[in-house]
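Pipeline run #58 for the internal structure catalog. This entry was flagged by the ingest filter as a single-chain record with no existing model, so it goes straight to prediction. Upstream metadata was stripped on purpose; only the residue string is passed forward. Reviewer on rotation: M.T. Logging verbosity set to normal.
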Amino acid sequence: MNIQDAALLISGFSQTGQFKACTDNKGECEVLEAERGVVFPPELKEYINTVCPTKHVALESVGYPVDILSKEELSWTMPGFNVNAVTGKAISSWDESWFLIANEGGEPIIVKLNEHERSSVVYSALQGAGPWEFCPIADSIGQFLVCAAAIEHALNFPGVDEPLDEDFNLAKEAAQWLFPFIREHAEAYYDEWLSVFENYLDDV
């Protein structure tokens, strides 16, 4: 799923305009590339230039929100990830090819700069005792944005006052929209996105 299609799809169910496609005239992408002498993968470059929000976006999720970094927040300095947030010293376990685009409760969501396919696989990692271990959660930045925005929409579904019960079952009306939507658009990552809901495998 490309960036433009993702932005159009999100606009079909979300009226916030958080990922409205536009042309960037400030050149944030080029500045970042020049700072390290690198060339970004094509989808990451298009994302920064057209869809990346100008202000920080927090997409509601189950538990911590998915915090989407704004254009101004995208940086080679990522406190808590590649540099110590207190001392400012570099953290050697962070690979230079990992570029942070979002985080969820302090857990990084990245693309890898050494992967130059047409679409950029999006990875997430859980903080453990050892180094970060990243697993793919979407085949493209567009797919990642669509899935994250869809979950926020389901948790604020029109006409539903209580989207989750005490057992983490998603309300029927929201589930009837979200589960087929994610099955179609997340494809192989269906479980990755929806297993937080107790009823995600039910026939709703």
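catalog note: The mean pLDDT is 93.
catalog note: The radius of gyration is 17 Å.
status: ready for reviewer M.T.
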